[in-house]
Design goal:
Number of domains: 2
CATH architecture of the largest domain: 3-Layer(aba) Sandwich
CATH class of the largest domain: Alpha Beta
Strand order of the largest sheet: 7-6-5-9-8-10
Radius of gyration: 19 Å
Structural class: alpha/beta
Distance between the termini: 52 Å
Order of helices and strands: EHEHEHEHEHEHEHEEHEH
CATH topology of the largest domain: Alpha/beta knot
CATH superfamily of the largest domain: SPOUT methyltransferase, trefoil knot domain
Number of helices: 9
Shape: elongated
Oligomer: single chain
Strand content: 15-25%
Largest sheet: 6 strands, parallel
Length: 249
């Protein structure tokens, strides 16, 4: 597809893409006309003027490179990354803006799950590095359950520089670190906050760690001493949500 087209698949990712602004070229479906989810997709496709092609499940699996397509695939233009400046301009007047930064998360499933959690937590954006990290591929979009079409994802060359830009805008930066002495639950996370979640295995890199305002640990019980990156990110994001709701109550 020469880098000009992508295939995304799965009911939720395709539904959100059909509601979004990306250029769409063809919708491929494999399913009965009585399938209510398929009817909804066909209606959205008709509204957007997207041609529909019926294929059997084997053809869809070959097209998507996986059997986990849920009977639907969409040929679209490549994923559009937002610009950090655009995000900062949009949240400039918000006293409690939330941004999630991911430092070298390489598993697209983790990336997708973190984007989904960020969207559900009301984050203004997810920021990822361009190199040595997963990008928003079809796998990540499927794992995000369509959330990659609802929350801006920013891809930057230098994560430390992005942190500096966030600090200029009044954000406090906190990184997730299993060895941190400060508990997540004892830190005030109201106001303008940016959270950093490190990659699988190595966590947050030293330069990124140094650029943060503080490192926060999630208290553990039992015999396992670490969490999956996407789970840790979800815990941190929703502690921010909890604190903000408590402050408003």
């Amino acid at each position: 597809m020469a880098g000009k087209e992508e295939i995304i698949y799965g009911v939720n990712p395709v539904t959100e893409a059909l509601r979004g602004e990306r250029a769409m070229y063809e919708l491929f479906v494999a399913g009965s006309s009585g399938d209510k989810r398929l009817e909804k997709l066909l209606k959205l496709a008709a509204e957007r003027g997207v041609p529909v092609r019926h294929r059997d499940k084997g053809d869809l699996a070959r097209l998507c490179g996986t059997d986990h397509h849920q009977g639907v695939a969409l040929k679209v233009e490549p994923f559009h990354y937002a610009e950090l400046d655009e995000v900062l301009d949009r949240v400039r007047g918000e006293a409690d803006a939330l941004i999630l930064l991911l430092d070298s998360v390489q598993d697209p499933h983790n990336l997708g799950a973190l984007i989904r959690s960020a969207a559900c937590a009301g984050a203004a954006a997810v920021v990822i590095p361009k190199d040595r990290a997963a990008g928003v591929t079809a796998v990540a979009e499927k794992a995000s359950a369509g959330a990659a079409s609802t929350v801006p994802v920013v891809q930057v060359v230098n994560l430390v520089h992005a942190l500096e830009e966030l600090k200029k805008e009044g954000f406090w930066i906190y990184g997730a670190d299993g060895s941190a002495k400060q508990s997540l639950y004892r830190q005030d996370l109201t106001g303008r906050v940016a959270l950093i979640v490190g990659g699988e295995g190595e966590g947050i890199r030293p330069l990124v760690r140094k650029a943060s305002d503080g490192l926060l640990g999630i208290p553990m019980q039992g015999g396992v001493n670490s969490l999956n990156a996407s789970v840790a990110g979800g815990v941190m994001l929703f502690e921010v949500v909890r604190q903000r709701l408590a402050k408003k109550a």
